[in-house]
Specification:
Helices cover 49% and strands 17% of the residues. It is an alpha+beta fold. It has four domains: 191 residues, no CATH class; 187 residues, no CATH class; 158 residues, no CATH class; 206 residues, no CATH class.
């Protein structure tokens, strides 16, 4: 221990006398270690950190698969069969998330809360306890039970002021009284971050064999001890097969699956976060290589010092220990500053990162992350500090003291330094190619034709309380009055109402169902064509700026229940299901009917005659795979009220006025998701933008570090060859010849590194293939731009040393030698 303390003191004094070297090394390390720590924090919080539930590894999501194998919701009756017939689950609960409820309070405006309807057993399945009160009891999810509600911690503080006496009080949701029975602990936000949980009560028409095709729910279950995920999935498949045989009209080729809950919550981000972590580790390797190069320069310059210490009796082991201590001191200081940089970066990511990144607000520096940073520091510090230390300790003492024999040693050091720079350039090439691919992909995804004109467009949702708006007539009356007032508003060009809107994956209404074509044979069960359904007012197409491909849009006269049913389809449906004919005039019949008033027999069979074809309008995210879409007159299915308003000027200047108009129609109707369509488009590409900026920043840092590395090698090479350059100039070489020699060597060294890097990139870019939109992982332009950027950086890095070589005075150089 005393020797270690002495080594640390000596290393501190030594580095303090070389501030330029110390600052360069520490800055490189702090930036790279900080970036690696921040990225690992994201990976840890999003992918590795267990869910805050009891034994989360036993929790699975249960749902159905479509005939094409895609995951989709299941019908309540199917889920009941999965629960009753499978012996794989200890507990099972159905879920219907993404709903909304209107909170009414005396003397305050109505508020829209996000609501999750869940089976009474859900909290028991998750294995969680409330912060206050209790969770649902058996039987409270029956239609005869009293109405009860559980508040989230956020809702309790935001809407009820953290009232400690809230349990037992009543609140008004959708014009009905609910008794608050509990408050959840902070962090409990399953499913889909609700403000409130209410018991899931299915209506009679949603259950039974007749409702098999009503796919609107999912299940969460806890596996029994000893039951594997694979065996549970097999049992569900057997049950789904039996159901398909018994009910081919609705369940043919419909399967079932069980997947880990954490996997379902995280989604596809693992395909992006792991490559990002790999990229930042490459940056760290480049930074460590740079520091190792600096240490080699320093070790070469200290040949005489090391020889003298050895001659005075210092053991080589002590010299190696001293030099490693010096390098570790650099790494430790760099890691400490890097941890501070990581904490700052994470705060910025949480505040400004893509809000659809799962578990975004759980990202933090914790013990596992700090242990990762410490392990990274020790591993890289020892690994990259050992080589310069061994080089210095192996010096030939006798020859060095005589002033001879350093040529071969320094030649070996130069080869090692050149090899390290070669590796830097190769790694930087890989990162530049990856960043180029993401940039090209992002450019293409942002230039996708969304099927509408986003400029001057305001969008907002109105949450119609279920207690006040039970019938179609109520919804239509509200929508018509709101449209009348909106179109009269100064600055408004046009307005429309719909049950959903573009670029809203979690909108108030989403539905997709199969259909048949009148006059055509019925397809084999399980192979029926399908389409998403969009109830819209006639003014919707003009307001959003949709493009008519063929035919016409429906009119106000056709937006009535007593009118002949008409529909408009998109060109995706036309291409997929009518590839060789004009679908105008064909009649589609959809597999659902809609109860208008709730009275027996008062229903509308969804479908109609195709009168027009519109260009596909993006529904959830730019770059998504297009699903066929069908547009109905709003009056036939006013399931929700989403308004789109086109303005003459800046839409933000009339946003508040538009919201006030909706509230003026009915103060009990909350307005939410108010914003511009341009903002919605920006949000739609939030994750691709995040990953592109992230990898672009890593690539820029790698390019900078590689440039510094090339500059260091060239500068040291010029310093060592001063006498040679002097002799060459004395023999007639020109300054241009010497400068060209230096630049040529720098570019040549870079060229070899680029060749290795491009070969590695050709293999590694497949890792990010799933992140690319309409971009080949072997995109020629991205590879060439990366190569040109590095060649340019190498030429620039070699230029300053080349100028110094060109200015060598041959007489002074030979006298100095």
């Amino acid at each position: 221990m005393p020797s270690l303390i002495a080594d640390v003191r000596y290393a501190t004094r030594k580095l303090a006398r070389e501030p330029g070297f110390a600052v360069a090394a520490i800055v490189s390390l702090s930036l790279s270690i900080g970036a690696a720590t921040a990225l690992f924090s994201i990976v840890n919080s999003v992918l590795l950190e267990p869910l805050p539930f009891a034994h989360p590894e036993q929790l699975v999501v249960v749902a159905s698969t479509s005939p094409t194998g895609k995951h989709m919701p299941a019908s309540p009756q199917d889920l009941l069969d999965y629960d009753r017939q499978s012996h794989a689950f200890e507990a099972f609960a159905q879920l219907d998330a993404g709903e909304s409820a209107t909170l009414t309070r005396p003397g305050a405006s109505a508020l829209r809360l996000s609501e999750a309807r869940v089976g009474a057993d859900m909290f028991r399945v998750l294995g969680v306890r409330p912060a206050m009160g209790r969770f649902f009891a058996q039987g409270e999810d029956s239609s005869a039970a009293a109405k009860v509600v559980v508040l989230s911690d956020i809702a309790w503080h935001r809407y009820f002021g953290g009232d400690p006496q809230i349990v037992g009080t009543s609140i008004i949701l959708d014009q009905a009284s609910y008794r608050v029975i509990g408050v959840a602990k902070p962090g409990l936000d399953y499913p889909q971050s609700p403000d409130v949980w209410v018991p899931l009560v299915w209506h009679s028409y949603e259950l039974g064999d007749a409702a098999r095709g009503y796919n609107a729910a999912a299940g969460v279950a806890r596996l029994r001890d000893g039951v594997t995920l694979e065996s549970a999935s097999r049992s569900l498949q057997v049950i789904a097969s039996r159901i398909a045989i018994a009910f081919p009209a609705t369940n043919a080729k419909i399967g079932a699956f069980a997947a880990p809950l954490q996997e379902q919550l995280v989604g596809d981000v693992s395909h992006a976060l792991w490559p990002m972590l790999g990229a930042v580790l490459l940056v760290l390797l480049i930074a460590c290589t740079n520091v190792a190069n600096l240490l080699l320069v320093r070790a070469t310059a200290r040949d005489a010092e090391m020889a003298l210490r050895t001659a005075l009796g210092a053991a080589r082991r002590r010299i190696v220990a001293q030099l490693i201590t010096e390098s570790m001191l650099l790494w430790v200081v760099g890691a400490a500053l890097g941890a501070l940089a990581a904490a700052w970066a994470l705060d910025a990511i949480v505040a400004f990162g893509p809000q659809d990144l799962p578990r975004l607000h759980e990202i933090t520096l914790d013990g596992r992350v700090l242990a990762f940073a410490a392990a990274l520091t020790v591993a890289t510090g020892l690994g990259f500090g050992l080589v310069p230390a061994l080089y210095a300790a192996r010096a030939n003492v006798a020859q060095l003291l005589k002033g001879v024999g350093r040529g071969s040693s320094r030649s070996a050091a130069n080869r090692l330094r050149s090899g390290l720079v070669l590796g830097e350039v190769a790694l930087a090439t890989v990162l530049l190619v990856g960043a180029g691919l993401l940039i090209r992909s992002f450019q293409r995804i942002t230039h996708v034709d969304p099927g509408f004109r986003a400029e001057h467009l305001i969008v907002l949702d109105a949450a119609l309380p279920g207690g006040l708006y039970r019938k179609d007539a109520d919804n239509k009356r509200f929508a018509n009055e709101a449209l009348s007032r909106l179109t009269a508003l100064p600055g408004v060009q046009s307005a429309a109402v719909a049950a959903d809107r573009p670029l809203d994956p979690d909108g108030p209404f989403t539905a997709s169902t199969s259909f048949t074509v009148a006059g055509m044979p019925k397809p084999v069960p399980g192979t029926e064509p399908s389409s998403r359904l969009h109830p819209v007012s006639p003014s919707y197409f003009a307001t959003v700026g949709a493009t008519l491909v063929r035919g016409r849009f429906f009119t106000d006269a056709e937006n009535r229940l007593d009118a002949a049913p008409v529909i408009v389809i998109d060109d995706e449906l036309a291409k997929r299901y009518f590839p060789n004919e004009d679908p105008i005039g064909r009649r589609l019949i959809f597999g659902i009917s809609h109860s208008v008033t709730g009275a027996p027999g008062d229903t509308v069979r969804m479908g109609g005659t195709i009168v027009g074809i519109v260009r596909h309008i993006v529904e959830a995210k730019l770059g998504e795979k297009a699903d066929p879409a069908t547009y109905f007159p709003y009056a036939t299915a006013p399931f929700a009220a989403t308004f789109v308003v086109r303005t003459h000027g800046d839409p933000t200047s009339v946003q508040s006025a538009v919201a006030n108009v909706i509230r003026s129609v009915d103060s009990n109707v909350p307005v939410y998701e108010l914003g511009t369509m341009e903002a919605a488009m920006s949000h739609s590409v939030g994750q691709p933008r995040f990953y592109t900026v992230l990898l672009g920043a890593f690539a820029a840092l790698a390019l900078l570090l590689a440039t510094i590395g090339i500059f260091g090698v060239m500068s040291f090479m010029v310093a060592q060859r001063t006498r040679e350059f002097g002799i060459r100039m004395a023999l007639g070489a020109t300054a241009k010849d010497l400068a060209g020699n230096v630049i040529g060597r720098g570019v040549g060294l870079t060229g070899l590194g680029i060749a290795l890097g491009l070969a590695a990139a050709a293999l590694l870019t497949k890792v990010i293939a799933s992140m690319l939109y309409a971009t080949n992982p072997l995109d020629f332009a991205s590879f060439m731009v990366a190569a040109v950027a590095l060649v340019g950086a190498a030429a620039l890095a070699a230029w300053l040393p080349a100028r110094r070589a060109a200015r060598v005075d041959p007489v002074a150089a030979m006298r100095a030698e």
